[in-house]
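Sharing a chain and its predicted structure for anyone who wants a worked example. Both blocks are below, sequence first, tokens second.
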Amino acid sequence: MITKKQASKDAVHFAFKLILAEDLRNEIGGKVTAVGLYADNVVVLQLPAEVPEPTEHEPLLVKSLGFLLCLQGPAGKYAASAELESDGARRPFMQSQTIILAPGKSVNMVGVLAPCGVASFGLKQVIVKLGDAILAASFEIRRELGVARPPPTTQVASRVATGIMAPDITKSKSTVSPFTAANQKVAPKKAR
């Protein structure tokens, strides 16, 4: 039988920091390049007022959303994976991989969802499984209302020009699950 004293003495403690950006790229030497960091892990989507609220069946597609997971803990090899939790559902977005932690050093895991489906606004969680430990960090996706519609810079709909894409569900039977990479293309609108 393990007492509380023994359990706390034998427990493995990890530290986990989440950083969000529009895009992330691994560099030589363990460095990570980040473009468009989101302060305080709050993603603010600037949308025209006429863009409807996203749903599970008609999510908004953000061009990309990068997740930098900085992990620290006792030296050793660990199986590590990550899931996104939104609206009570968990979806894997970083497959299991082996990481090696060294004393006093951190290991970076980078995941970029491009595009990233957003089915609702509000608080979300990144759940990291590291060995037998489960770690969590929160982030938020917000909508900024009343943004004037910018003129389209290409033939693609203005939702793409503002960084948001909507799948053309009239031509496709597949749906985009929130927080999963999708291979859907947005059809250009014809000039009127």
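Comments welcome. The helical segments are 4-10, 158-161.
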